[in-house]
Amino acid sequence: MGMTQQMAEHQANIIDGRHHARKLESRVAAAATDLKTNHGITPTLGVILVEGNPASEIYVRKKRQKAESLGIKSIVKTLPPDTALSAIESQITAWNSDDSIHGILLQLPLPGRQDPYDLLQTIAPAKDVDALHALNAGKLFWQQTRQPMPCTPTGCLILLESAVKKFDGLHAVVVGASPLVGRPMAQLLLQKNCTVSIAHSKTKDLPALTRQADILVVATGNADLIRGDMIKPGATVIDVGINRLADGRITGDVCFEEAERIAGAITPVPGGVGPMTIACLMANTVTAAFHAHALELESLFKSADN
Ligand code: NAD
Asked: Is the pTM of this model over 0.85?
């Protein structure tokens, strides 16, 4: 059998994000029921959506539907695109002092891609279910984070744990260095004792770097950035990217058809990281509700069969 033929026959394991999300969600739903029936508390998420970004509107709708299906109340405050930052801050501070709201999410990006940093700092750290407040980001840096966990990176890590037996010393390459995904992802991989490289748009010779990756996490927003010949045979590939093609289809940052012939395991888009991000957000919200009432809760992110 020729080499080409052999390579063509290889099929990566597909990491099913929906399956892993359902497992996490069942723990979230059980915890929400416990809160309600034993303590009379309804875990509640407040979402601020500044209109003008169609993708954000879809994400907020999905989060709301998921919340309701798990027994989490969600309140969406929709603001017009030209809303002043001070008015967004007023909504945040009102929810900070409202004991019935356990989690606050400011849907990003803000209109005009305004820097959200200052606004994010006005969210009470205990209610910061996206883990983007500087205090929570700093706790991650110090390996002190138990709650809240950064949603997308934590979702990626759960998927990685389903495919990788031992992380110690593996070379993990994270492509993308945003505060939302790439940077916290790199921190979590460091905590797992990986050797971590972070690549970004100024990285020279990206293929030479990605070809060294035992674990490759890609979050850039460029369809087909990662081609099959940029992947180390047998690598575990997590595709965070969400790109809408001209024909309306959604695709990731990794050329899936090429990658699945080389990688050991890979997440699809859709059906990979996306469902995990939402499940982790729900887990953060229910955990925040427990903690707000000084109630103990075993980490929802860990399970015996993860
Ligand atoms: P961002 O625009 O804030 O950051 C993109 C990062 O990618 C930057 O660090 C940039 O330097 C890097 N980059 C851009 N082009 C590159 C290139 N050609 N080569 C190497 N690096 C490059 O984006 P983000 O918020 O981190 O999101 C990244 C992608 O992940 C987007 O497609 C977004 O929609 C998606 N996303 C998905 C989920 C999910 O739940 N699946 C969650 C968050 C973001």
From this structure: yes
Instruction: State the distance from the centre of ligand 1 to the C-alpha of 92, rounded, in angstroms.
Output: 26
User: Which domains does the chain show, CATH number per domain?
Assistant: 7-18+151-273 (3.40.50.720), 36-128+274-292 (3.40.50.10860)
Segment (H or E) for 134: helix 134-141
**Cα–Cα distance for residue pair 77/96, rounded to 1 Å:** 14
Is the CB of residue 241 less than 8 Å from the CB of residue 221?
Answer: yes
Q: Name the active-site residue from 128, 130, 214, 253.
A: 130
Q: What is the mean pLDDT of each run of 10 residues along the chain (306 residues)?
A: 60 98 98 98 98 93 98 98 95 98 97 93 98 96 90 98 98 98 98 98 98 98 98 98 95 98 98 98 98 96 65
Contact 238, 253 (CB under 8 A): no
Which residues are CB-neighbours of 45 under 8 A, at least 6 positions away?
A: 63, 67, 72, 73, 74, 75, 101, 102, 103, 104, 105, 129, 281, 285
What pLDDT, on the 0 to 100 scale, is given for residue 306?
Answer: 47
- Return the best residue to mutate from 209, 210, 240, 280 for the ligand 1 pocket (most ligand atoms within 8 A of CB): 240
**Contact, 119 vs 89, CB < 8 A?**
yes
CB of 148 within 8 A of CB of 105? no
Q: Which of 283, 18, 285 is nearest to 159 (CA)?
A: 18
pLDDT of residue 274: 97
State the DSSP H helix or E strand holding residue 49, giving kind and residue range, or none if neither.
Answer: strand 44-50
Interior angle at CA 281, CA 132 and CA 39, nearest 5: 115
Does the Cβ of 92 fall within 6 Å of ligand 1?
no
